Amino acid sequence: MEELRLSNWLPTTNKEVKIRGWDALDVILFSGDAYVDHPSFGPAVIGRILESYGLRVAIVPQPNVNDNLQDFVKLGAPKLFFGVTGGCMDPMVSNYTASKKRRDKDAYTPNGNIGFRPDYATTVYSKILKEKWPDVPVLIGGIEASLRRVTHYDYWSDQLMPTILESSKADMLVYGMGEQPLREIVRLLQKGVPFSNINTVNQTAVLVISEDDIPKNKNWEDVEIASHETCLKDKKAYASNFKIIEQESNKLYARRIFQKVGNKTLMINPPYPTMTEEEIDASFELPYTRLPHPKYNKRGPIPAYEMIKFSINIHRGCFGGCSFCTISAHQGKFIASRSQESVLREVDVVANMPDFKGYLSDIGGPSANMYKMKGKVQEICDRCVAPSCISPVICSNLDTSHKPLTRLYQAVDSHPKVKKSFIGSGIRHDMLVPEFNKNADAKELDDYTEEVMTKHVSGRLKVAPEHTSDPVLKLMRKPSFKYFHKFKERFDKINNTKKLKLQLIPYFISNHPACEAEDMADLAAETKDMGFQLEQVQGFTPTPMTVATVIYYSGYHPYTLEKVNTPKTQKEKDEQHRFFFWYKHENKAWIKNTLNKLGRTDLLKVLLPENDKWRKNKPGKPKHTFNDAVPFNQRKNKVEFRSKKRK
């Protein structure tokens, strides 16, 4: 790679602005993350898109909110707007564990240091900018803004909050992946349209003060959901809102959503169609340095960057629609896949990085094996309102062929500098089971599984059955656990035939809505019976914009409005989670007492038999604890956060 100069990065200081010979800026971005100029980091993508339109763009990463707020004025006012994001993870997930305790690491900060990202960062940054520069528009985006675009339950403050547009005082919100709406916003601004007049761009939301200001659009149908004030008074009304929100977020031809917030009206315009191959290729091929800004050279490595440094993101979106996951709410359920040629060009760039040793850490996406998958007949997808394409069964219109993905893996591995490419993203094991994926070619599924196991796994294959209870799994929009048994049979067969000695590592969730203590005891017994001593486990964390979170707060399922029991107290949560660690010495007396109370001596015989052959564990803290849990939607993002304990 050619030697890089400071001017190869977007400027972050006045000195860097002057190096470029600029006397003013068009857009200034504020981010809760350290600045990494890489396509896996949203602020870099947005900055590079703006730059591609000839705009002069600067970025202020992790501005200090605890001093005289110099970071918010040092670059002056931009000509067009401020752009604000809390970062690649919701700041509250980044800052707190599932039990609301402060984390001791921030993966998006040099050296993993904490304290550089405020709680509710998007709101904090935006309010400061509006106070300092009241006449300059503020545009918010990223996962925090996207998932908080309507009335939402905030787990950390334990209250319903209005749209983030109200709390942040921002002028406009871009939800989802922001490239398409941003390009249209810039096009209109460059035509001379005032920012305040831009209110009909797809995939944006604004607060309208007067109903007379609501723009007419003959191409859109409208729908109104229960007001914020109604939601505060009526949990069932709040729950009923979510069915509309989720369905409209995942339709190709969605309605415009209105919600009253006090004397204002929130207007959420329909999303853009899924990005085309050309559009997503273009986004990944902007002139990134693929490196953290040099300002961090002496501060230590950025954990999130180190994790994805030698990885390749091949698609966006997820059609799983899991009830606890926000990927489809943010990235959409339809898959936007890069071309094989674009992926291979990026592989070549990575392979020629000075410290590349021949190993690609991940060829994947939100779910590793959804590349190039889409509806066979587009007209059927055009009419679909289902939030998931594979729950409760795999849609007969869904093409789940793994051939394009297998060919891509083989093409990547043919690069002369690539010794091995790993699949680090989560694999949907259920789609590899012919008994579940009934319309697929069984041999093709086995060929893909064998390709992954023999060439792309480093000792352990991670999959996510999430639970063993069918009622809980049904609510999760996950298939029956019997299909995990089927997958394990195929895994074991390939393992034995090829003499691989690979481990299968399943993920599980405790205290999810509809989960009872007895379900967790069943889970512990069944997984022990299968030979697992669980380690990849987490407690359910309610995050905005999921079915499970709506149920957690309201007690109602948003699609049926039937009541659903949910573990709410810390005692209930801790006790459910404790079943994961049945093998710990300090848990055995408690498990014995609990199962006797439940009348489940049958499970007791499985978990704590008289002559248990499982190795004895000394008393001590479990290696993987509830406090280290990271929500599924953040886990499945391209960048995964792990504390030291989970490495």
UniProtKB/TrEMBL annotation:
Binds 1 [4Fe-4S] cluster. The cluster is coordinated with 3 cysteines and an exchangeable S-adenosyl-L-methionine. Keywords: 4Fe-4S, Iron, Iron-sulfur, Metal-binding, S-adenosyl-L-methionine. Belongs to the UPF0313 family. This is Putative radical SAM protein YgiQ. [4Fe-4S] cluster binds at C318, C322, C325. It comes from the Bacteria. The keyword Membrane does not apply.
